[in-house]
Specification:
Elements: E1 8-13, E2 16-24, E3 27-33, E4 39-44, E5 47-48, E6 52-56, E7 59-63, E8 76-82, E9 90-93, H1 105-118, H2 144-166, E10 178-189, E11 194-203, E12 208-214
Parallel strand pairs: 9-12
Antiparallel strand pairs: 1-8, 1-9, 2-3, 3-7, 4-5, 4-8, 6-7, 10-11, 11-12
Helix pairs in contact: 1-2
C-alpha cells in the first residue's frame, strides 16, 4: 500500500506596522509588526528574501533579493508557520519530506487536489490524459482575462478527475474526498513571472476552506 507523505505546509501572514531601511550594503529592510514567531518566509515584492533575522516578536531584518534591489519596495509579507489551513493561509510546497509525516484529513484532500492540478496532461505515461495542466501557466504571457480563464479550466479539470478517482478508493474518509473546487481569484505578476491563485475546496463531509497558492 502506498503512503501519501505530507509535502505541503501552511503559512499565515503576520501584521506589519512599519517598513524602513536598515542598511544599503547589503540592502536590508527593517520590518516592524507583531506575531513574528515561527517565521518561515519573508517576501519582498513577491520574491523570497535570501536571508532574514528575527530580532524579536515585533522586529525582523530582511535582505532585499538581488532582483529587487533597483525596484521600488511595493510589498513586504512575513509568513509564519501554522498547523492548519485558515482564511489567510498560503500553501507552501516543500521539496523534502520531514520526519515521514503523513497527510491526513483535509490536508490529504488539499495535497491530492494540488497534485492533480499541477500535473501536465501527457506527463504520466500510465495515464496520459490525467492532470489539470496548470503548471504551463507559470511564466506564460497573456492577459489577466486569459490567465483567469485558463486557471478556471485547470481547476475544473482537476476537480472532475479527482472526484472520479476518489470514488474508487474505499480507504479514504469523507474529509479526504473532494466534493467541489472553486477558483476565487487568479492573478499574474509580470515582474516576478508568478501566478497567484486562491482556491476554495469543499470536502464530502461538508468541511471547507480556501488558501492562496503562488507558483
Amino acid at each position: 500500500m502506498s503512503v501519501d507523505y505530507q509535502v505541503l505546509e501552511y503559512r499565515d501572514s503576520a501584521p506589519i506596522r512599519e517598513v524602513g531601511i536598515f542598511t544599503t550594503s547589503p540592502f536590508t529592510l527593517d520590518i516592524k509588526g507583531s506575531g513574528f514567531t515561527d517565521v518561515a518566509v519573508v517576501t519582498i515584492n513577491g520574491v523570497r528574501s535570501p536571508e532574514f533575522i528575527v530580532l524579536s516578536g515585533s522586529r525582523i531584518l530582511a535582505q532585499v533579493p538581488r532582483s529587487q534591489v533597483s525596484s521600488a519596495i511595493e510589498g513586504v509579507v512575513v509568513f509564519v508557520a501554522t498547523g492548519r489551513l485558515q482564511a489567510k493561509s498560503v500553501i507552501d510546497l516543500q521539496a523534502v519530506v520531514t520526519a515521514g509525516k503523513r497527510a491526513s484529513g483535509f490536508t490529504h484532500l488539499v495535497q491530492s487536489f494540488l497534485k492533480t492540478l499541477l500535473t501536465t496532461p501527457g506527463s504520466d505515461i500510465f495515464s496520459p490524459s490525467s492532470g489539470g495542466g496548470l503548471l504551463p501557466l507559470v511564466g506564460s504571457i497573456g492577459t489577466s482575462g486569459d490567465i483567469l480563464a485558463r486557471s478556471k479550466n485547470a481547476v475544473a479539470a482537476a476537480a472532475s478527475q479527482l472526484i472520479t478517482k476518489q470514488t474508487m478508493n474505499t480507504r479514504l474518509n469523507n474529509s479526504e474526498k473532494l466534493q467541489a473546487a472553486e477558483l476565487l481569484s487568479a492573478t499574474f505578476s509580470s515582474t516576478t513571472g508568478t501566478v497567484d491563485l486562491r482556491i476554495k475546496l469543499t470536502a464530502l463531509d461538508g468541511s471547507t476552506s480556501s488558501a492562496s497558492l503562488s507558483l
